[in-house]
Write a structure and sequence with these properties.
This protein is of the alpha+beta class. The chain has two helices and two strands, in the order H-E-E-H. A two-stranded antiparallel sheet has the order 1-2. The longest helix has 26 residues, at about 45-70. It is rod-shaped. About 0% of the residues are buried.
Length: about 70
């Protein structure tokens, strides 16, 4: 079993300890939406931003399909 090193309460963390706790400089939320034809993945700062980004992408895709069909029927 792994032995845990304990630190006294109130002591500052070393840079190495802070890096382990922080997990690195990048953070964000990832949301994915998929269909049988493909997958849309986005990474944003918050879950709300990720969902908004996916929604905007779906609206753009839908608009593109509608325009393509409308031009094909002319």
């Amino acid at each position: 079993m792994e032995e845990t090193k304990k630190q006294e309460t109130g002591q500052d963390l070393s840079n190495e300890q802070a890096a382990q706790v922080g997990g690195g400089a990048t953070c964000g939320s990832t949301a994915s939406v998929g269909t049988s034809g493909g997958t849309v993945t986005t990474t944003a700062g918050t879950p709300g931003e990720a969902m908004t980004s996916i929604y905007d992408g779906l609206v753009d895709t839908t608009s593109h399909v509608i325009e393509t069909v409308a031009h094909a029927l002319k």
